[in-house]
Structures are given as structure tokens and as C-alpha cells.
Amino acid sequence: MVAANPMFKGGMSLRKKFLATAVINDIWAETMFFTAVGTLVAAITKLTSHQLLLDSGLLGVLGTVLGLVISFRTSSAYERYSDGRKMWTNIITYSRTLAMTIWIHISNERPAPTTDGRAPTELECIIEKKSMINLVQALSVSIKHYLRGESGVYYDDLYPLICFLPKYANGGKTEADLLPLWQASEDAAYPMEHNPPRHSGTRSNSTNTLTSNLNSLRNKSKVFDPEKVLPVVEVHRPLNPSRNPPRAGFTDYFPFLKIFKLLAKPFRSSPRSQDVNMRAVLGRKQKPHTCDSNVPVEISLFLMNYANIMIRGGHIPASVAGTLVGGINNIQDTLSNLERIADTPLPFAYQAHLRISIWIYLLALPFQIVKNFGWLTIPGTCFAAFLYLGFLEIGQEIENPFNYDLNDLDLDDFCFMIQRELHEITAHPTPNPSEYVFSAWNQPFAPADRRTAEELIRNEEQYTHAEHGPDSQPGLHSISRTLLKGWRDVDISTRK
Predominant location of this chain (predicted)? Predict the structure, then answer.
């Protein structure tokens, strides 16, 4: 997501600065075309006896109408962009709440499930809770890939977090027993070994040659490498990179040549369904098939099942159980809203009619202004084309803010934020407050009383404060006066 002026921002190549402006790359061909029309009209009118003129009365009427329509188009697109950002803020909040609820409120001291069963140890409970919190992180990552039209689970930033989930139903080990989460992710080019040998010792890295090469380059240059903190697991197929933007082709820099790409489409063989790094005819990322598994929903099922088991076993307070279940349901509701934004563009008829109207207006513009502008018709037409077509393309650019364009939302950064916060939550071992409250570092009554908690406990019987006067009495009455004085000091000191 480009939030600052890319022309004056360091760390970006010239190519990225050019692409960050979005509209220039998309409309330069059309702008040059209308500029050429304006040049032709101005040259014929000024250099020959032919006067290519039209009544300018149409200019004001159509300009006002088109301005209003384009304004509505851009506003509606930005509203979707803003809604997408709000939805991801909700996912961050719900993920944080889920992790805190699992980590703090689910007990580490549990009784045996049955009379002849064994009670889980504290280490087992912590491992269980940390694994579920990793699933919360995987849920946001899977939503990112799902919104980008990348099906399956075999990605560098997703598979290591969910590879321990069950793959087969009823203890089976055949392809017919594969659960939906894994069935939809399978590829004939990389068949799963249904009876893999058991490995012992340290697990090796993935066989993804591309990822290994990238990691080696990253390690040499010490650049950003978020995947290295994830679990190292074995996998039967190469993992796709966490970021897989469509490859930029020749027609992406010369959009008017896409007509030849469209004409050649019937004669090309269809790409593999798993090749998510392909572009559609008009340059958009190809969507997964509708029969593919909804990975975020599948992960949510495991989280909901875990919540159900914890509630039935009485391992979480009843008053907090609603927070756990509600957090999972809220993420599902947010996912539905994100799907609505990604899969419901403005009707094609509206977009086509608006573009045709702009084209007619820009074609007629030189004929209406050449009489008064003369040779200035050329830059005037160029500026008008850049203005109208630019706003139109901006609306189309931000209509779906979940792709790889530089002006789209930075979904990877949102997922990294969730990852950092979840690990920050689990970094706390949930100690008893008595272990850190009554220490020499804590001054609970400051600024009224700057003695530490350790000193206060040591002199509990003689607790008083010199500022209270001779009528002060030790005990609760004196504590109340201390708290009241603390409020008064803060109130005075913090007012400008």
C-alpha cells in the first residue's frame, strides 16, 4: 500500500515509483490517442481551410454529468477500499482477543478426563494452547491467500502452521479418505504419499528449490525474511511463495495490445488450474475454481471444535466461553464481508457505459475548443483525457484492494502484525500477580506516596502520610486520603 508520495520516498526503484502512480501505466495509451486526435483537429483547422468545429454548448452539459458520475464511481470504489481496511482491523482485533482468551483463561491444571484416564501435564496444556494460537495466526494468513484468489494450503507462510492438522477421516490412509482441507489442495503433479515413512531427529527444510534460493540470497544480504521464524517441516511438494504477484508481461506496459491477447485466447491451451501465478486476458489475477475448499472456514472448524471441547470439559469459565466462540464467529462474519468486497464489483454494464461516454466526450472535445484555444487544444485535450481517464482507472484500481497492486492494501503487513502480537501475548507465562506486584520496583500510590510496595508491606501497621496532618489515622482511612491526594496531584499536573 502506497501511503506517501512515491516520487519523493526513498527505497523504491524507478519502476515501482512509476507503477505506484497506477493510472499512468494504465491510461497513457488512451491519453496519447486522444492527444493525437486533438493534434489532428488543431492542425487541420489552423493549417487548412477546413474548420472542424462543433457547438460548445454540448461541452458544459456532458462535462457536468460525467463529472458527477465519475465522482460517484470513485467514491463508491474508495468506500470499498475503506471497508476492506476496516475489516482487516477487525480481524487483527478478534485474533488478539482470541489469543488472549485461549492463553489466559483456559486452565493449565486440568483433571483427568475419565476415571481411568491421565490428567494432562502443564506442558501438554501449554503446547495445546500455543498450537491453537498458531491456528489463529494461520486463519488470517489463509484469509489473505483466499482473497487473492490463491487456493490450497501449500504456501511458505501457511503450511508450516497447519501441517499438523489431521489429513484423513476415520483413520484412513488413502486418497478417498482425504479431508476437504487437503483434498482441494492436492495436485496431480505432486501426489501425496499416503503412507509416508516415519522420520526421526531434526526435520529437514522444504524441497522448494525456489524458496531455498531466495532464502540463501536473503541470508547473504540480511534482508526481510519473515518465513524463517516459522516451523521447519517436511512436505511432499514444493511450497508456493507467500507473495506470488502475477508476472508483468509486454501487454501490461502497452495495454492497447491486449486486444491481440484476447483474440489469441481460443487458440491457447488452458493453463493448469493450480498455476495461481497466471494473468487473465485483461491482466487480472485468475480466481480459483468454485469447487475449491474454503481454507479459512476449514481452519475455523478446528478452532470451534477446540472451543467446544474446552467448554464441555469445564476448562474455561462460562462467562468467558462466549468471548471465545464469539471471536471465531466474528472472524467468519468479517470473512463474509471481505468476500462481498472482493467478489461483487460494480456491474459491467455501468462500467462499460461510463467508459464509452467518456470516450465520446473526449473525442468531441477538440472539435468544441479548437476555435477558442487554437494550438492549445493539444495540451488541453491531453490534460482532459488524463483527468477523466485517471479518475476512472483509480476507481477500478481500488475497487478490489486485496491484490498485488502497489496501491492495494498491504495484507502481508496485516498478517505480520497479527503474528507479532500473538507471539507477544504468548511470551507472557501468566504468573501469579503476587510474584511481581509486591516488589521494590512498584510504587502503586505515586505521586502521593512514592514508597515501594515492598516498603508499604513492611510498614503496614504504621502506614500514614505526613501530608495528612496530625489527625490522620493509619489504616484504610489513610489509604483513602493517599489515593485522593494522588488524584488531585495528577489532575493539577496534567492540565495545560
Answer: membrane
Give pLDDT tens digits for 205-246.
443 434 444 444 344 445 667 888 888 888 888 888 988 887
* Contact (CB, 8 A) for 69 and 354: yes
- 368 grid coordinates: 468544441
- The CA distance from 310 to 120, in Å, is 13
Grid-cell match 497479527, residue found = 418
Of 410, 330, 418, the closest CA to residue 148 belongs to 410
> Given CA atoms 71, 73, 76, 80 in this order, what sign does their dihedral have?
negative
Q: List, for residues 356-390, the tens digit of each pLDDT value.
A: 888 888 888 888 888 888 899 999 999 999 888 88
Tell me how crowded residue 385 is: count the other CB atoms within 10 A of its CB: 26
Q: Is the dihedral of CA 61, 66, 72, 78 positive or negative?
A: negative
Asked if 296 and 152 touch (Cβ cutoff 8 Å), the reply is no
Quick one: three-class SS letters along 276-314? CCCECCCCCECCCCCCCCCHHHHHHHHHHHHHHHHHHCC
Whether 252 contacts 280, CB under 8 Å: no
Amino acid at 58: L
DSSP letters, 37-85, are HHHHHHHHHHHSS------THHHHHHHHHHHHHHHHHHHHHHHHHHHHH
Contacts of 477 (CB under 8 A, 6+ apart): none
- Please report the sign of the dihedral spanned by the C-alpha atoms of residue 296, residue 299, residue 304, residue 307: negative
Place of cell 461541452: 59
Backbone Cα Rg of the chain:
32
**Quick one: which of 280, 395, 414, 406 has its CA closest to 334?**
414
**How far apart are alpha carbons 434 and 198 in whole angstroms?**
46
Rounded distance between C-alpha atoms, residue 237 and residue 358, angstroms: 50
Among 271, 376, 289, 311, smallest CA distance to 105 is for 311
